[in-house]
Amino acid sequence: MTATLLRTAADLHARARTGRRAVVMTMGALHEGHATLIRTARKIAGPDGEVVVTVFVNPLQFGAGEDLDRYPRTLDADVELAGRSGADAVFAPSVDEVYPGGEPQVRISAGPMGDRLEGAARPGHFDGMLTVVAKLLHLTRPDVALYGQKDAQQLALIRRMVRDLNFGVEIVGVPTVREEDGLALSSRNRYLSPAERRTALALSQALFAGRDRHAAQEALRARAREVPATRARAEALSAIGESRAAADAHAVATTAGGPAAVRAAARLVLDEAARLDPPLRLDYLALVDPADFTEIGDDFTGEAVLAVAARVGTTRLIDNLPLTFGTLGDAS
Predict the structure, then answer these.
(1) Catalytic residue ranges
(2) Burial bucket for residue 18 (CB in 10 Å: 0-12, 13-18, 19+)
(3) What is the model's pTM?
Protein backbone atom coordinates (compact mmCIF):
# COMPACT_ATOMS: atom_id res chain seq x y z
CA MET A 1 0.00 0.00 0.00
CA THR A 2 1.03 3.63 -0.45
CA ALA A 3 1.33 5.92 2.56
CA THR A 4 0.08 9.50 2.29
CA LEU A 5 2.65 12.14 3.26
CA LEU A 6 1.22 14.81 5.56
CA ARG A 7 3.08 17.92 6.68
CA THR A 8 0.64 19.63 9.05
CA ALA A 9 -1.53 18.63 11.96
CA ALA A 10 -4.50 20.24 10.19
CA ASP A 11 -4.08 17.83 7.27
CA LEU A 12 -3.87 14.89 9.68
CA HIS A 13 -6.94 16.00 11.63
CA ALA A 14 -8.91 16.38 8.38
CA ARG A 15 -8.61 12.64 7.70
CA ALA A 16 -11.75 10.63 8.38
CA ARG A 17 -11.42 8.19 11.29
CA THR A 18 -13.52 5.04 11.35
CA GLY A 19 -11.50 2.78 13.64
CA ARG A 20 -8.54 2.78 16.00
CA ARG A 21 -5.57 4.99 15.17
CA ALA A 22 -2.18 3.44 15.95
CA VAL A 23 0.87 5.72 15.88
CA VAL A 24 4.53 4.76 15.50
CA MET A 25 6.88 7.63 16.39
CA THR A 26 10.26 7.76 14.66
CA MET A 27 13.07 10.16 13.81
CA GLY A 28 13.22 8.74 10.31
CA ALA A 29 15.97 6.69 8.64
CA LEU A 30 13.57 3.77 8.90
CA HIS A 31 14.86 0.20 8.97
CA GLU A 32 13.46 -3.28 9.62
CA GLY A 33 13.03 -2.51 13.30
CA HIS A 34 10.66 0.32 12.42
CA ALA A 35 8.97 -1.91 9.86
CA THR A 36 8.25 -4.42 12.63
CA LEU A 37 6.69 -1.66 14.72
CA ILE A 38 4.52 -0.61 11.77
CA ARG A 39 3.41 -4.16 11.01
CA THR A 40 2.50 -4.63 14.67
CA ALA A 41 0.56 -1.37 14.59
CA ARG A 42 -1.30 -2.59 11.52
CA LYS A 43 -2.40 -5.73 13.37
CA ILE A 44 -3.53 -3.71 16.37
CA ALA A 45 -5.43 -1.14 14.28
CA GLY A 46 -7.05 -3.82 12.15
CA PRO A 47 -8.37 -3.43 8.61
CA ASP A 48 -10.77 -0.66 9.61
CA GLY A 49 -8.23 1.32 11.63
CA GLU A 50 -5.43 3.67 10.67
CA VAL A 51 -1.66 3.53 11.13
CA VAL A 52 0.24 6.81 11.25
CA VAL A 53 4.04 6.97 11.30
CA THR A 54 5.59 10.20 12.53
CA VAL A 55 8.97 11.28 11.17
CA PHE A 56 10.50 14.13 13.14
CA VAL A 57 14.11 14.73 14.15
CA ASN A 58 13.56 16.40 17.50
CA PRO A 59 16.20 19.05 18.26
CA LEU A 60 15.34 19.01 21.98
CA GLN A 61 16.71 15.46 22.31
CA PHE A 62 20.20 16.37 21.12
CA GLY A 63 22.71 17.82 23.54
CA ALA A 64 25.86 19.82 22.86
CA GLY A 65 28.22 17.93 20.59
CA GLU A 66 25.62 15.33 19.60
CA ASP A 67 24.73 14.44 16.04
CA LEU A 68 21.63 16.52 15.21
CA ASP A 69 23.03 17.78 11.90
CA ARG A 70 24.58 14.40 11.14
CA TYR A 71 21.42 12.43 11.86
CA PRO A 72 20.28 10.76 8.60
CA ARG A 73 17.24 12.19 6.86
CA THR A 74 15.75 9.89 4.21
CA LEU A 75 12.11 10.94 3.97
CA ASP A 76 11.33 9.55 0.50
CA ALA A 77 12.66 6.12 1.45
CA ASP A 78 10.88 6.36 4.80
CA VAL A 79 7.50 6.99 3.18
CA GLU A 80 8.05 4.04 0.85
CA LEU A 81 9.04 1.65 3.66
CA ALA A 82 6.18 2.85 5.87
CA GLY A 83 3.60 2.21 3.15
CA ARG A 84 5.08 -1.17 2.30
CA SER A 85 4.88 -2.14 5.98
CA GLY A 86 1.23 -1.18 6.35
CA ALA A 87 1.11 2.53 7.24
CA ASP A 88 -1.73 4.67 5.94
CA ALA A 89 0.01 8.00 6.49
CA VAL A 90 3.39 9.49 7.33
CA PHE A 91 3.21 12.67 9.40
CA ALA A 92 6.47 14.56 8.83
CA PRO A 93 6.03 18.03 10.33
CA SER A 94 8.58 20.83 10.21
CA VAL A 95 10.24 22.15 13.36
CA ASP A 96 7.99 25.23 13.13
CA GLU A 97 4.90 23.01 13.01
CA VAL A 98 5.90 21.18 16.18
CA TYR A 99 7.42 24.18 17.97
CA PRO A 100 5.63 27.29 16.70
CA GLY A 101 7.38 30.37 17.98
CA GLY A 102 10.61 28.53 18.77
CA GLU A 103 11.66 26.14 21.49
CA PRO A 104 8.93 25.69 24.11
CA GLN A 105 9.35 27.48 27.43
CA VAL A 106 7.16 24.89 29.17
CA ARG A 107 8.57 21.37 28.98
CA ILE A 108 8.00 18.00 30.60
CA SER A 109 10.52 16.90 33.19
CA ALA A 110 11.52 13.24 33.21
CA GLY A 111 12.08 13.35 36.97
CA PRO A 112 14.57 11.15 38.86
CA MET A 113 14.36 8.25 36.38
CA GLY A 114 15.44 10.64 33.64
CA ASP A 115 18.70 11.42 35.42
CA ARG A 116 19.90 7.80 35.43
CA LEU A 117 21.87 5.82 32.83
CA GLU A 118 21.01 7.44 29.49
CA GLY A 119 19.92 10.57 31.32
CA ALA A 120 23.25 10.82 33.14
CA ALA A 121 25.15 10.30 29.89
CA ARG A 122 22.94 12.74 27.95
CA PRO A 123 21.69 15.49 30.30
CA GLY A 124 18.33 16.89 29.24
CA HIS A 125 17.75 14.18 26.64
CA PHE A 126 14.70 12.65 28.29
CA ASP A 127 13.09 16.01 29.04
CA GLY A 128 13.29 16.79 25.33
CA MET A 129 12.08 13.32 24.39
CA LEU A 130 9.04 13.43 26.67
CA THR A 131 8.17 16.95 25.56
CA VAL A 132 8.05 15.97 21.89
CA VAL A 133 6.26 12.68 22.60
CA ALA A 134 3.60 14.58 24.53
CA LYS A 135 3.20 17.07 21.69
CA LEU A 136 3.05 14.34 19.04
CA LEU A 137 0.47 12.42 21.06
CA HIS A 138 -1.67 15.56 21.13
CA LEU A 139 -1.07 16.29 17.45
CA THR A 140 -1.79 12.75 16.22
CA ARG A 141 -4.52 11.84 18.76
CA PRO A 142 -3.91 8.07 18.70
CA ASP A 143 -5.74 5.31 20.52
CA VAL A 144 -2.49 3.35 20.82
CA ALA A 145 1.18 4.28 20.36
CA LEU A 146 3.99 1.78 19.79
CA TYR A 147 7.66 2.05 20.78
CA GLY A 148 10.62 -0.31 20.52
CA GLN A 149 11.98 -2.05 23.58
CA LYS A 150 15.56 -1.33 22.45
CA ASP A 151 15.10 2.10 24.02
CA ALA A 152 13.99 0.55 27.29
CA GLN A 153 14.44 3.61 29.48
CA GLN A 154 12.61 5.78 26.97
CA LEU A 155 9.72 3.31 26.89
CA ALA A 156 9.55 3.21 30.69
CA LEU A 157 9.48 7.01 30.90
CA ILE A 158 6.76 7.31 28.25
CA ARG A 159 4.64 4.80 30.14
CA ARG A 160 5.22 6.73 33.36
CA MET A 161 4.30 10.05 31.72
CA VAL A 162 1.12 8.62 30.23
CA ARG A 163 0.13 7.18 33.60
CA ASP A 164 1.13 10.18 35.74
CA LEU A 165 -0.40 12.80 33.44
CA ASN A 166 -3.52 10.84 32.47
CA PHE A 167 -2.98 10.61 28.73
CA GLY A 168 -5.81 8.65 27.18
CA VAL A 169 -3.62 6.39 25.08
CA GLU A 170 -2.44 2.79 25.28
CA ILE A 171 1.35 2.30 25.13
CA VAL A 172 2.68 -0.89 23.52
CA GLY A 173 6.31 -2.01 23.64
CA VAL A 174 7.62 -4.10 20.72
CA PRO A 175 10.64 -6.44 21.13
CA THR A 176 14.02 -5.42 19.73
CA VAL A 177 14.77 -6.49 16.17
CA ARG A 178 18.32 -7.75 15.54
CA GLU A 179 20.61 -8.47 12.65
CA GLU A 180 21.49 -12.12 12.04
CA ASP A 181 24.69 -11.64 14.05
CA GLY A 182 22.80 -10.22 17.02
CA LEU A 183 23.48 -6.50 16.62
CA ALA A 184 20.36 -4.51 17.49
CA LEU A 185 19.00 -2.58 14.54
CA SER A 186 19.63 1.16 14.83
CA SER A 187 19.75 4.08 12.45
CA ARG A 188 23.23 4.79 13.87
CA ASN A 189 24.60 1.42 12.70
CA ARG A 190 25.21 2.97 9.27
CA TYR A 191 27.95 5.12 10.80
CA LEU A 192 30.04 2.03 11.69
CA SER A 193 32.97 0.95 9.56
CA PRO A 194 33.34 -2.83 9.05
CA ALA A 195 35.97 -3.01 11.81
CA GLU A 196 33.85 -0.89 14.17
CA ARG A 197 30.83 -3.06 13.50
CA ARG A 198 32.77 -6.17 14.53
CA THR A 199 33.66 -4.48 17.81
CA ALA A 200 30.07 -3.28 18.28
CA LEU A 201 28.87 -6.90 18.36
CA ALA A 202 30.23 -7.00 21.91
CA LEU A 203 27.15 -5.13 23.15
CA SER A 204 24.72 -7.89 22.21
CA GLN A 205 27.26 -10.61 23.01
CA ALA A 206 27.62 -9.22 26.54
CA LEU A 207 23.86 -9.22 27.02
CA PHE A 208 23.59 -12.78 25.71
CA ALA A 209 26.40 -13.87 28.05
CA GLY A 210 24.53 -12.40 31.00
CA ARG A 211 21.29 -14.01 29.87
CA ASP A 212 22.95 -17.40 29.38
CA ARG A 213 24.61 -17.21 32.78
CA HIS A 214 21.23 -16.48 34.30
CA ALA A 215 19.56 -19.32 32.40
CA ALA A 216 22.27 -21.75 33.56
CA GLN A 217 21.79 -20.53 37.12
CA GLU A 218 18.04 -21.09 36.94
CA ALA A 219 18.62 -24.58 35.56
CA LEU A 220 20.89 -25.36 38.52
CA ARG A 221 18.29 -24.04 40.93
CA ALA A 222 15.64 -26.24 39.33
CA ARG A 223 17.93 -29.26 39.48
CA ALA A 224 18.73 -28.59 43.12
CA ARG A 225 15.03 -28.55 43.98
CA GLU A 226 14.36 -31.88 42.32
CA VAL A 227 16.10 -33.91 45.04
CA PRO A 228 16.95 -33.19 48.70
CA ALA A 229 20.25 -31.52 49.55
CA THR A 230 21.75 -34.78 50.83
CA ARG A 231 24.20 -37.43 49.71
CA ALA A 232 21.24 -39.16 48.07
CA ARG A 233 20.80 -36.09 45.88
CA ALA A 234 24.36 -36.28 44.61
CA GLU A 235 24.04 -39.99 44.00
CA ALA A 236 20.78 -39.48 42.14
CA LEU A 237 22.31 -36.85 39.89
CA SER A 238 25.35 -39.01 39.24
CA ALA A 239 23.10 -41.92 38.34
CA ILE A 240 21.63 -39.97 35.44
CA GLY A 241 25.04 -39.03 34.10
CA GLU A 242 25.51 -35.63 35.69
CA SER A 243 29.04 -34.36 36.22
CA ARG A 244 30.59 -33.73 39.61
CA ALA A 245 29.92 -30.03 39.12
CA ALA A 246 26.26 -30.74 38.47
CA ALA A 247 26.13 -32.93 41.55
CA ASP A 248 27.13 -29.86 43.50
CA ALA A 249 24.28 -27.88 41.97
CA HIS A 250 22.80 -26.91 45.31
CA ALA A 251 25.94 -25.13 46.44
CA VAL A 252 26.39 -23.39 43.11
CA ALA A 253 22.77 -22.33 42.96
CA THR A 254 22.84 -20.75 46.40
CA THR A 255 26.21 -19.00 46.31
CA ALA A 256 27.36 -18.19 42.78
CA GLY A 257 24.39 -16.80 40.94
CA GLY A 258 21.91 -14.00 40.82
CA PRO A 259 22.40 -10.46 39.56
CA ALA A 260 26.11 -10.36 40.48
CA ALA A 261 26.86 -13.35 38.24
CA VAL A 262 24.86 -11.84 35.37
CA ARG A 263 26.79 -8.58 35.61
CA ALA A 264 30.11 -10.42 35.80
CA ALA A 265 29.41 -12.54 32.73
CA ALA A 266 28.42 -9.51 30.68
CA ARG A 267 31.31 -7.40 31.87
CA LEU A 268 33.84 -10.07 30.90
CA VAL A 269 32.76 -9.74 27.26
CA LEU A 270 32.89 -5.95 27.41
CA ASP A 271 36.34 -5.95 29.02
CA GLU A 272 37.63 -8.12 26.18
CA ALA A 273 36.08 -5.76 23.61
CA ALA A 274 37.88 -2.82 25.22
CA ARG A 275 41.14 -4.40 24.04
CA LEU A 276 40.05 -4.75 20.40
CA ASP A 277 41.10 -2.50 17.54
CA PRO A 278 39.10 -0.33 17.40
CA PRO A 279 38.20 -0.60 21.09
CA LEU A 280 34.79 -0.49 22.68
CA ARG A 281 34.50 2.37 25.21
CA LEU A 282 31.89 1.47 27.79
CA ASP A 283 29.50 4.12 29.10
CA TYR A 284 27.60 1.81 31.43
CA LEU A 285 26.50 -1.73 32.13
CA ALA A 286 23.49 -1.88 34.42
CA LEU A 287 21.02 -4.43 35.72
CA VAL A 288 17.99 -2.43 36.75
CA ASP A 289 14.41 -2.50 37.91
CA PRO A 290 12.32 -1.31 34.91
CA ALA A 291 9.97 0.53 37.26
CA ASP A 292 12.57 3.19 38.07
CA PHE A 293 15.87 2.11 36.45
CA THR A 294 17.71 1.73 39.75
CA GLU A 295 20.22 -1.12 40.16
CA ILE A 296 18.73 -4.30 41.59
CA GLY A 297 20.15 -6.08 44.63
CA ASP A 298 21.22 -9.70 44.91
CA ASP A 299 17.92 -10.63 46.59
CA PHE A 300 15.79 -9.05 43.84
CA THR A 301 12.85 -10.98 42.39
CA GLY A 302 10.78 -10.06 39.37
CA GLU A 303 11.35 -8.41 36.00
CA ALA A 304 14.68 -6.68 35.36
CA VAL A 305 16.54 -5.10 32.42
CA LEU A 306 20.19 -5.74 31.59
CA ALA A 307 21.27 -2.59 29.74
CA VAL A 308 24.49 -1.46 28.09
CA ALA A 309 25.73 1.65 26.30
CA ALA A 310 29.10 2.13 24.64
CA ARG A 311 30.95 4.02 21.96
CA VAL A 312 32.76 2.48 19.02
CA GLY A 313 34.66 5.10 17.10
CA THR A 314 32.41 8.16 17.09
CA THR A 315 29.17 6.16 17.27
CA ARG A 316 27.28 5.63 20.51
CA LEU A 317 25.10 2.51 20.73
CA ILE A 318 22.68 1.11 23.31
CA ASP A 319 21.10 -2.29 23.83
CA ASN A 320 19.25 -4.26 26.51
CA LEU A 321 17.60 -7.56 27.35
CA PRO A 322 14.79 -8.35 29.82
CA LEU A 323 15.47 -10.95 32.51
CA THR A 324 13.30 -12.48 35.22
CA PHE A 325 14.67 -13.30 38.67
CA GLY A 326 13.11 -15.54 41.25
CA THR A 327 11.19 -17.90 38.93
CA LEU A 328 11.98 -21.11 37.15
CA GLY A 329 10.37 -19.98 33.91
CA ASP A 330 11.96 -18.62 30.77
CA ALA A 331 14.99 -16.59 31.78
CA SER A 332 14.90 -14.42 28.70
Answers:
(1) 34
(2) exposed
(3) 0.86
